[in-house]
Amino acid sequence: REASGTDAAAALAQIYDLAAALLVHLGKEDLAAVAAERAIAAASSADDERLHAVMQGSYAWVLLHQGRLEESEQIASAAADRIEPSFSAPAEDIAAWGSLLMTALGPAAAAGRDTAEDYIRLAGAGAERLGRRVRIYQTSFAPATVHMQATYTYAVRREPAKALEAARKVHPGDLPGTISRGRHLLDVAQAHVDARHGKAATAALAEAHRLAPVWFRHQGVARDLVSELLEQQNRLTRS
Questions:
Q1: Beta strands of 35-146 (E only): which ranges?
Q2: 235 vs 158, 191, 198, CA distance in Å?
Q3: How far, in Å, CA of 49 to CA of 57, rounded?
């Protein structure tokens, strides 16, 4: 960074960002927070406001996994506000803004806050303006991103009809990568469980396991859903 200036600072920020994401998936949230903080520090030297904002979104995502919901939402929402694009802004600016709104949505939904609906509405408008998937650093933003996160929001809030309505707008090829597809299928399964659709919930869980069996085994949500389905089946058998 000292030798090459802002270009090196931007690359360093993204390397720390990747490290933070990997550490979260390994269950090392405290180390992930350190990496995310260093990503923000490196980005502050990169002379790129958009990168700096997105790195703050990564830190907010780590805070979500630590259960620090209020901090997570506030940081992501404030970063989105700082880079809110104009109608004629480049696609990458809209994608960065939309991605930050989706990051703020996660903790808002988990905490049951009314702001979740606002994030869905705003991000949906940005996604409609794009009309396609746009990559931004280590992430991306698209209409399917909004529908996927809306499914998650309504599944967490135990509103299965709304969750399944949002899920119907997501097609398997719309989501970038195996893990995002698996995560979405867990939300779909949750909605089906809450709606007492046992066979549909089992099918969604089986598909998530088929996509990423190792990842699936480490998901507490998946274990809880399997247990709940077994309990529902036992109650039916007893009756």
A1: 134-136, 139-141
A2: 21, 19, 12
A3: 13
Structure tokens at 100: 């930050």
Residue 168 bridge partners (DSSP): none
For residue 163 the two structure tokens come to 């969750």
pLDDT, tens digit only, all 239 positions of the chain? 677 778 899 999 999 999 999 999 888 999 999 999 999 999 998 889 999 999 999 999 999 999 999 999 999 999 999 999 987 899 999 999 999 999 999 999 999 998 999 999 999 999 999 999 999 998 899 999 999 999 999 999 999 999 999 999 998 788 888 888 999 999 999 999 999 999 999 999 999 999 999 889 888 889 999 888 888 777 766 65
The pTM (predicted TM-score) of the whole model is: 0.88
Looking at beta carbons, which pairs linking 9-16 to residues 24 or more positions away fall under 8 Å? 9/42, 9/43, 9/45, 9/46, 9/47, 10/42, 10/43, 10/46, 10/48, 10/51, 12/42, 13/39, 13/40, 13/42, 13/43, 13/46, 13/51, 13/55, 14/39, 14/51, 14/137, 14/138, 16/42, 16/55
